[in-house]
Amino acid sequence: MNVMLRFARSSCCALALGWTLCSAAACSKSEPEPPTPAQAIPEPGPAVIPAPRAVRATDPSLPPRRAIAGIAGFQSSSRIVFEREPGKVHTLSATFLFPDRARLCLSLEQDKRLERVILYRAGARGFSIDQSVATSQEIVEAELESLFLQTELRRALFLYPDGFDWSAEGPVRAADLGKQGQFVLQLGPDGRPLSIASFDAAGNRAELLDAIAWKQKGARYFPSHFRLNVGGEPIWSEDVLEVETALDYIDDYFLPPDRRAQDVPAGKAPSDPAIEAIDLPAQWELRVALTNAAASLDEARAAAEALIVTWRDRGVGLQTDTVLELDREGRVAACLLYSREAGVAPAESWKLRPERPAWSMVLASAEAVDKTALENMAVRLWTTDRGAEFELHLVKSVGGGERATLVAARSLR
After folding, report:
1. pTM for the whole thing?
2. Of 263, 252, 286, 266, nearest to 358 (Cα)?
């Protein structure tokens, strides 16, 4: 059965009406199978870890990383509009590291709730998570082959002409995938694809990407727009907002949080706060540095709340958290505003932050942040020249209290 149609019956039903990973049977010219009753698809919540752990940068079970045409991988952020839901704008974040590492996150924010469906490819395995349930589910058999074919088609499009052996003559080119099937594309007058289709091993067309437009970035061209068709039916149109090739992800990013390795160092007290493996969603960020470097926590909180009021008055939908950026000593360095609105930035000063893995720890209070707590979070981050970013998230409760959460992620600045 079509794996994304099965996802459509979970909490993210609007997300997956058309995003399809077709098995050979589902994509054949025969009559489609009738839908089966709704199934609950396990989806991971945060993986609770009782003590610090070192996160491995590479997974020995995966093939060694190997760049394609000098590119180690890419991440694209896109705006998606379904044919059946033209009034709703979804967001797709697609991250690839070569070879055989891919992560596709389709999301929709509505009624102040973020709904997501995430597909992972890690070597010869695939996984899915849905925002509504607590554990991940492994994708197997025909659905796994479909996942491989879908991720490879997107890679072929974004890296064309590199990464596959394309037949070298005429406007129609093909790439043989062996047991997986083949790709066939139609070139335009400029030598770039107008359309590209995937076919499974039985010769059934799985997906067609057409109406492709291109935009130059540096020395390469990347797609800026295309349409997805499955089984002869138009599914969505996709506008690519950004493509980034300077990636610094660890292999654990291509596994659901509940399946990531846990190498726990000894010597940590069991009474220490639990730390959760989480994934920060793709979102727009506005960073406003504090003019007073010695500002107290109360002063920084007040400055952030004033910024929130200002931007909400301008009609920008913001997260409910008050977020403060901390330096490595635990001092407040800046106020951070986050918006998950799809499409263009709320204003020129806002930057698009990609989805990324992080660590989260609930604190007894906002004042509980100290250098020791930051070091306990930093030990979970892989080694990188960019270092770590620390955020203090504050959420007011109905009874007047406040929930404080410390978040650590790799630096993107």
Report:
1. 0.68
2. 252
